[in-house]
Write a structure and sequence with these properties.
Structural class: mainly alpha
CATH topology of the largest domain: Four Helix Bundle (Hemerythrin (Met), subunit A)
Strand order of the largest sheet: 1-2
Number of helices: 10
Shape: elongated
Largest sheet: 2 strands, antiparallel
CATH class of the largest domain: Mainly Alpha
Order of helices and strands: HHHEEHHHHHHH
Helix content: over 70%
CATH architecture of the largest domain: Up-down Bundle
Radius of gyration: 23 Å
CATH superfamily of the largest domain: GntR ligand-binding domain-like
Length: about 240
């Protein structure tokens, strides 16, 4: 573990980075106990508050967990993909909002990634995932459904499609792409979209995945992407004319 620190940078950040790097390169293994606070203070030549701040940073990233008692201390955590979804979604949402990524760029990236899952989803989707897609299609067709509920249902449908690929790495990567961009897409397009048309696209996709027909599912997803982009352009044009 690297213990030399630069004095012109936040010491707690550097300590957290050193421990994180040791976890990532296998120097510290899952469930292994970290050195005590006193030992870390000696290793890095810093005060206990600085070490504690570093440990808080690592805990916030779910990289370590703490246990009380005689056999307690800080331990390397085992992170599951499901536990990391929330952080991925938050990071993606912040990146999109803070860097002012335009709608076309976000839409292009999201659907390109999602279409990459279609072939695997056609092969591997489970009955439960198909049932989720069918249930969300039925929900989206309800006339009294609010825009917020429609958006949530839209996200659930596409997450089931992605999860159908049976690849946790893809599901993790696309958690941000789907759940961060879908609310943005719905916010921009909800005034002009035709829900019946979206339901029709979703129905075609679900039917194709049920039949293990990846080509038809991919074509429908491509058409949905084009439709979404056209709605966004219309919305932007109206907004520009209004100003």
């Amino acid at each position: 573990m690297k213990t030399e620190l630069e004095q012109n940078r936040d010491l707690s950040v550097q300590i957290a980075e050193a421990i994180r790097d040791a976890i990532m390169d296998g120097g510290l293994l899952v469930d292994e106990r970290l050195p005590s606070e006193a030992e870390l203070c000696e290793k890095f030549g810093v005060s206990r508050p600085t070490v504690r701040e570093a440990l808080k940073r690592l805990a916030a990233q779910n990289l370590i967990r703490t246990q009380r008692g005689a056999s307690g201390g800080a331990f390397v955590n085992r992170i599951s993909f499901e536990e990391a979804y929330g952080q991925q979604i938050t990071t993606s949402t912040l990146l999109l909002s803070m860097n002012e990524v335009d709608f076309e760029t976000a839409c292009e990236a999201r659907y390109a990634l999602e279409r990459a899952c279609v072939d695997l989803s056609a092969q591997r989707r489970t009955a439960d995932q198909l049932a989720t897609m069918r249930a969300e299609i039925h929900r989206q067709a309800q006339p009294g459904l609010s825009d917020e509920a429609f958006c949530a249902s839209d996200v659930a449908f596409h997450r089931a499609l992605v999860d159908g690929a049976g690849n946790p790495v893809l599901s993790y990567q696309l958690a941000g792409a789907v759940e961060a961009t879908q609310p943005l897409m719905n916010m921009i397009t909800f005034t002009t979209r035709d829900r019946n048309r979206i339901v029709a696209f979703h129905t075609t996709i679900a039917d194709a995945l049920d039949a293990r027909d990846s080509q038809t599912a991919d074509k429908a997803l491509e058409q949905l992407a084009d439709y979404t982009s056209s709605l966004a352009r219309e919305a932007m044009e109206r907004r520009h004319k209004a100003t």
